[in-house]
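Running co-folding for 1-deoxynojirimycin.
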Amino acid sequence: MNKKWWKESVVYQIYPRSFQDSNGDGIGDIRGIISRLDYLKELGIDVVWLSPVYESPNDDNGYDISNYEAIMDEFGTMEDWEEMLQEMHNRGIKLMMDLVVNHTSDEHAWFVESRKSKDNPYRDYYVWRPAKDGKEPNNWESAFSGSTWEYDEETEEYFLHIFSKKQPDLNWENPKVRKEVYQMMKFWLDKGIDGFRMDVINFISKVDGLPDAENPEGKRYVSGHDYFMNGPRIHEYLQEMHQEVLSQYDIITVGEMPGVTPDQGILYTDEDRKELNMVFQFEHMDLDTQPGLNKWHLKPLYLPDLKDTMTKWQKGMEGKGWNSLYWNNHDQPRIVSRFGDDGEYRVRSAKMLAACLHMMQGTPYIYQGEEIGMTNVRFKDISDYKDIETLNMYNEKTADAEAEPEKIMHSIYTKGRDNARTPVQWDNSEHAGFTTGTPWIAVNPNYTNINAQQALHDQDSVFHFYRKLIQLRKENDIIVYGTYDLLLRDHEQIFAYTRTLGNETLLVITNFSSETPVFKLPEQIAYRSKEILISNYNADPEENMEYFTMKPWEARVYRLFS
Ligand code: NOJ
């Protein structure tokens, strides 16, 4: 396997609005980030993925960009940003910026021009269509509820927006659009950044003719996923981007790709095809959703499903592509509340989840707060929620006379994106040390117990466990490059697997429950000696590990030599 620095790195995601405020306006900012770089250095991460900091009217918290080459006022200035980059590099930390080019803001200069007239030179930068039978051009449903089409009175046509109506989709069919994007990417790369995380990048090519999606139940709007995910020209565009831009720099690239399968994942990440380094897939994030329905339709996780999905990706990409590994990001609920136990076993289960993920093959991503075991939040009042996806869903659902508000709130508590967006809990002072002002979204009230200051002082904290996992990855090639094999596929509590490289084997045993199941080592695993690499209960190294009763949410990683 080809060795690469980005395979050996651990990435930490910063969602700047919620990370650290420096000027008391209640909004995280770039100088706040600078003030916390030593903390990240101590954690040991190699790369920061910074969610968008570009100029934006913030309909979707910066994922609606009005100027790709300017910094959002609330976050600071270009000088602040340059200082931040320098300070990261001084500490040996690389910077991966967010690239959001499926859509812009409707306040971007291109769109302002585009909507003026049908013959404006920027008209074809976006996707405009006339009405069909007096209605929207097709029946696709927006990711944020309602139609993907918005009527514009000025020119009496509709424009396409897969996300909010303030996020019009760019028309990648237009070579001028692609050229502008490539130039903009070079603008940042030439400033010295180290890579891009590409927002819904597998949405940029749409099926010709933008046909109606199948609609057997006769709904008003239906998911148009099959018509814009992994579309007909996607590989052509990414190869062109590689040729024009990416190939000229030694960088890390990751494509956010809802709806991608391992076979497609290989097409995107096979090094010979010259597209991207890795993708964010979502299959493991869909396992607590009822099949065929949107994320708000809940279902408990069945552990064998998670094992099957993770294994499918581990084996599917082995030797052919490269995985990214994540439990959290700014769009997902907190993992310890989701697949762990955020009550009695919060610390144990947060560590178990970390070990289970970080021992797999791929580049691990840690989302801010995950390293201290931050949990989901339950705000009583819908007015405390800020996320457009949550609010649009709430408004749409409650407009229905038969709506059950409690059920809707339960879905929001379980799946809402604001779970990930409450401010980072730095200490137990007011607003968790995030701001001296009023935070744009309330702090999770559990900050008095769960905060970074406490975690740094406690050698048994989740923070120090993550630090150790990162360290182990740097010291053990097997964690990066070893092959993966699942054990005990059908077990409903235990997730166990091995990694193998040469005469070494890692044995990872994790308990996804508050129960005490018995682990029995399958016979095929032969070894002469063993040692414990890491565990979350200080397991006795001499204990028989071929047959033992696991403690609630226990995790053990052994290194075996044959
Ligand atoms: C994916 C981003 O992660 C999410 O936060 C955003 O709302 C959509 N793409 C649209 O940009």
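Result summary
The first strand starts at residue 11 and ends at 14.
Residues 483-561 form a domain with the Immunoglobulin-like fold (CATH 2.60.40.1180).
Job closed.
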